[in-house]
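okkk here we go again. third time trying to get the zinc ion bound version out, last two times i messed up the smiles copy paste (missing a bracket lol). double checked this time i swear
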Amino acid sequence: MIECGREADVFEAVAFGRWPSHAAPELQAHVAGCPICRDLLAVAAAMQDDRRRLIRAAEPPTAAIVWWRATIRARAEAAHAAMRPMTMWQAVAGTCVAALTAAIAAGVWRSGIAGSAAADLVARLAISRAGSPLAGFGIEHALLVLAGVVACIVLAPIALYFALADD
Ligand SMILES: [Zn+2]
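finally!!
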């Protein structure tokens, strides 16, 4: 015999805290004579003790603290969501500024390093293209504008990608 018809009653008495003081005398008498219910009682009582101890040891926060934490978290998440596009545009602007700075630096470096050669070239171009409207523009400025245009062409898809990735 591995089952007893009173197991549910014994378990219920233990689970609801009625065992042993508030349990029916008839049930107590049955448990005293039934090995299956005695085993069940031993296991259920141990689990019930453990549960009671855990409940006593637990220190759940008060409702006010839970509410306060939820409010703080909601505010932080809203602020984070609002800052995201701003951060993205700052990154795009920073990239543009860095690229422009690099382009200007490259133009300055070229005109500085190849100063004498560029001067010769500019002089020759100025002589050979004296009649053209670009004659007085200067090769350094042309290089600078070219670098800026290239930077814009390279950075435009990146900026577009970030703008569309936000959605
Ligand atoms: Zn029994």
